[in-house]
Amino acid sequence: MRCYLHAFLLCMVLSFLSLLYVFSQLASTLEDADGWAAREHGIPDRSSHESGHLLRKMPGPAGLPDREEGEGSDSFVKKPSDERSHLAVVACGPRLEETLNMLKSAVLFSKKPLHFYIFAEEELHNSFRDALKSWPRVVQGHFNFTIYHITFPKENEREWKKLFKPCASQRLFLPLILKDVDSLLYVDTDILFLEPVEHIWALLTQFNSSQLAAMAPEHEEPRIGWYNRFARHPYYGKTGINSGVMLMNMTRFREKFFKNDMTAAALQWEEMLMPLLQKYKLNITWGDQDLLNIIFHHNPESLYVFPCQWNYRPDHCIYGSNCKQAEQEGVFILHGNRGVYHDDKQPAFRAVYEAIQKSFEDSILKPGPLEASLQTTTHTYCGRASHLLTKRLKQSIASVQQDVTKRR
Ligand SMILES: *[C@@H]1O[C@H](CO)[C@@H](O)[C@H](O)[C@H]1NC(C)=O
Ligand SMILES: *[C@@H]1O[C@H](CO)[C@@H](O)[C@H](O)[C@H]1NC(C)=O
Ligand SMILES: *[C@@H]1O[C@H](CO)[C@@H](O)[C@H](O)[C@H]1NC(C)=O
Ligand SMILES: *[C@@H]1O[C@H](CO)[C@@H](O)[C@H](O)[C@H]1NC(C)=O
């Protein structure tokens, strides 16, 4: 009897191994086929004739994706069946680790597939690629990515580059660079998703016919608001908008004629940006975010304002809690601006950052240790509001764990 059992087990192991082999062969064939498809179709929206091989070996000309990652010919074309969330980030300077942590938080909780559009300085391309390729295989199955060079319109390249932080104003040009992408969620590098990306993505379907972008207010509390106290330019609404989490229907960006205070005629997105910068460059403080505020001041019907729990910053707790929706439902997306993930000013934000950073190593993120480290931050106002940081996060973790258990 025992002997049979052994033989049976051996058989099972062998067939499993051969299956694995077949799969790996199949996978590499598919990869090749995909590479071919990407090459055949060329890179959209540029009349480049370089082959994919060339692109792979050499840094492509500005604006071309540096590399297609296992992505078929359908990569840029929206299909009715596209259930992916398309996530873009712009990373310059020392932002590699932070950006990877943001991307990690996106894959940790999302159940629908993701596509990452990573705009980065040349020096960072290999590091991004290597890091993403080193993630666990199961995780890699949930996303594809494309890495791009930072590009600005040739005529005014210098002026755009030096506006605010290096590269930050790249986001203004995404509708023009990613011409074949219908919609995009742009986030700053210091964003952490505490719930699936597809939840914010779903807001796109709530846009009415004139809305083309969604953002959160810059402040909840006008008494500490920046724009209403200091701005020397028009801004949206009572306290302005924050562009760190920006959901865009880019098809509509490309189609719309925007009202503005430069000409009587409405202008298209690409026609408007440079005159706007020229007019306001001496008066703006926060770079492209200020430009977005000016634009939506003149086109308020085009903006969908989502509540602060989708873009929760130290401002929402630093002088006491002022984001009501987060108090009710928890924080959905954390935005650690002012460098709070990396210094000791807001240890509660840092604790969440570090918990996510460790998460593939400890396999799945566990709420216990995070809550313990948040307990040590209660000497700060944000620490005292830390149950808001974990409320939604704990649900997200539980939901992922449930799926893992089901699969076993
Ligand atoms: C990534 O691209 C491959 C090849 O086109 C595709 O089969 C796969 O479904 C994509 N994965 C995701 C998560 O979109
Ligand atoms: C974006 O807007 C276009 C034009 O109105 C529409 O066809 C498309 O379905 C919208 N995309 C999404 C994701 O809602
Ligand atoms: C810039 O700020 C100054 C001082 O507040 C103001 O007088 C001027 O009108 C502003 N420029 C524009 C284009 O709004
Ligand atoms: C869409 O919603 C915005 C904000 O509520 C509003 O200003 C605008 O008039 C609405 N557009 C349409 C076509 O209903």
From TrEMBL:
Membrane topology reported for the UniProt record: Single-pass type II membrane protein
The organism's place on the tree of life at top rank: Eukaryota
Which major enzyme category is it?
A: transferase
Catalytic activity reads:
3-O-(beta-D-glucosyl)-L-seryl-[EGF-like domain protein] + UDP-alpha-D-xylose = 3-O-[alpha-D-xylosyl-(1->3)-beta-D-glucosyl]-L-seryl-[EGF-like domain protein] + UDP + H(+)
Q: Where is this region: Disordered?
A: 41-81
Annotated Gene Ontology cellular components are: membrane
| Chief localization | membrane
Q: Which residues form the signal peptide?
A: 1-24
> Which BP terms does GO give this entry?
protein O-linked glycosylation via N-acetyl-galactosamine
Q: What is its EC number?
A: 2.4.2.42
Pfam families for this protein: Glyco_transf_8
Q: Which UniProt keywords apply?
A: Glycoprotein, Glycosyltransferase, Membrane, Signal, Signal-anchor, Transferase, Transmembrane, Transmembrane helix
What does the sequence similarity comment in the record state about its family? Belongs to the glycosyltransferase 8 family.
Q: What protein does this entry describe?
A: Glucoside xylosyltransferase 1
